[in-house]
Amino acid sequence: MPPPTELGSTAPMENVTGQSFQATILQLLSNQQALMCRMAEQMENIQENVQSTSRNELVLDSLASNITEFAYDLQQGNTFDGWFSRYVDLFEKDASKLDDAAKNHKCRDCGQTGHKEGYCSCFTSKTNFKRFTPKQQNHATKIVTVNNVKRSRRFVETVINGVPVELQLDSGSDMTIISKQNWFKIGAPQTSLPDCKVQTASGDRLQIEA
């Protein structure tokens, strides 16, 4: 008499094998989805870091090119209050845009904190500034007004349309602008709409009227 067959147990085994395979596939898909989510999050963080670094670079360049190192000299009138007042706009506006990492950045060239690589000499002394000699101008000039200027406070007195006017000196600016108050002071000459877009050293849009 032949032994009994075990064909009756084949179907349940195939069912268990199919369920295990399906569970494995579902687990792989779940792992893949989790991996894609982590990669997307990492890419977003990288993009934010790049944008933050670029913004910090612009602000640091502006600060390094406009702020001189403080050197106390009471006989020459070089006090901290006087020095700080010249750059208060930069400290309160431009520097406030820096994140904590940029504010505490340590220069790899000299080991000091407070500036980026390549600007060590900017924090010792600046002796390469050319002396500005204002010249009287009686001819018509292009006049623009400004809502906000993020620059250090250095002023010179010049003459426009025969009227003495005190202007803020910025040797790195590509254009000359005056306030609406000074525009009225020199007789409110005829103006025209601006034909260019103006940005500050930190990359912000500068609104001008004419």
Summarize the structure.
With 210 residues, the protein is mostly helical. It contains 5 helices and 4 strands.
SSE layout and pairing:
Layout: H1 10-66, H2 80-86, H3 88-94, H4 100-103, E1 155-160, E2 163-168, H5 180-185, E3 198-199, E4 205-206
Antiparallel strand pairs: 1-2, 3-4
Verbal overview:
- With 210 residues, this protein is mostly helical.
- The protein has a domain at 155-186.
- 39% of the residues lie in helices and 8% in strands.
- The strands form 2 sheets. The protein has a two-stranded antiparallel sheet.
- A hairpin with a 2-residue loop joins strand 1 (155-160) and strand 2.
- The N and C termini lie far apart (112 Å).
- The structure class reads mainly alpha
Strand ordering within the main sheet: 1-2
- Please give the number of β-strands: 4
Which term fits the overall shape? elongated
- Tell me the number of helical segments per DSSP (H or I, 4 or more residues long): 5
List keywords for this structure.
mainly alpha; 4 strands; 210 residues; elongated
